[in-house]
Amino acid sequence: MDQNQSAKSRTLKRLQVGGLPLIHAIAQRMRLKDILYKYIPAHGNEDIPAVETLMLLVYNLIVGKDPLYELQQWVESLDFRCINNEDYENVEFNDDRFGRVLNKLYLVDRASLMTELVVFFVKEFDIAVEQLSNDSTSIKAFGRYPGKTKTGLELKKGKSKDHRPDLKQLVFSLSIAADGAVPIHYKCYPGNVTDDTTHIETWNSLLKITGYPDFLYVADSKLCTDEQLSFIVDNGGRVVTVIPETWNEVESFKEKLRKTKKAKEIIWRRRKPGSHDKKEYFSVFKGDYFTTKRGYKIHWIYSSEKRKRDRDNRDKPEKSRAVFSAAQWKNK
To answer: Which of 135, 137, 48, 141 shows the shortest CA–CA distance to 98?
Structure first.
């Protein structure tokens, strides 16, 4: 074969590397594949262990988030040497293979799997878990999705944060560590579950992960119910939350402010988010304040920006009524 024929027989193939070597190194350090094999062991009738396919799916969720029907094209573009899987270069990773792997993952004890992964990850990377924050959101769905999972998860109509009460939804609860906002725990609930019923379960799960009860648990006002607060405190926990406007202590304090000016102390100044030159500050009213029931400590916080927002909100109804009255007069 002459030189020209040899050149024609060669082809140039472009392969992706990107962030895969770094992601693969982190996955190895957290023993992700080893823990997955514990829950999804290899079977003799498999040409490729399910976990190996699942690892590719995990990598894609991090770097691409492609739909199942595009995963095969993505896999074929990879340089397998960067993830130490050169033996699978000629394997067909189609959407059917990924779908069957997801079915196997669904059948395992995923709660125990996630707990084991997170506990090892926290220890291996020395993640501080002294302060954990929780929040939830609703995820709406279009179309018909009948039935429920074996754990009771079901699309339901509820209080939609997307302002779509006509659609069914799921409620997604996530807890993160203050140390780098690392996700520590999550759970999905049926769409009709409200936030003020989930915190005891969440706190118990975080207790299993941290191994001790006195971490600081931070959440919004939905945490502030007597049942949830008393459960956490009675079990040695600590909580920071927002007291709802419906509590008598709020109206009582506001009434005192209307009658007497109270001293306050600035505790934090910062640049207003989204602004280059405007500042905002937060102050705390001096004095010791406690809830009437159980005597929980209250810190009354004053926000310069919230004062402006409240003032604007108070003015809006007046403007609306003025416009309405003008329109009525014109029609006459």
So the answer is: 48
Q: Which two tokens stand for residue 43?
A: 């079977």
Start-end of H helices in the chain = 3-9, 20-29, 32-39, 50-63, 68-76, 95-107, 110-124, 199-210, 226-234, 248-259, 304-331
Instruction: Give this prediction's pTM.
Output: 0.79
Q: Which pair of tokens denotes residue 322? A: 């003025």
Among candidate residues 258, 266, 310, 259, the one with its CA nearest the CA of residue 285: 266
Could you give the domains of the chain?
Answer: 14-108 (no CATH), 128-242 (3.30.420.10), 243-332 (no CATH)
* 240-284 pLDDT, tens digit each: 999 999 999 999 999 999 999 899 999 999 998 888 888 999 999
Whose tokens are 């759970």? That residue is 187
Confidence bin at 318 (pLDDT 50/70/90)? low
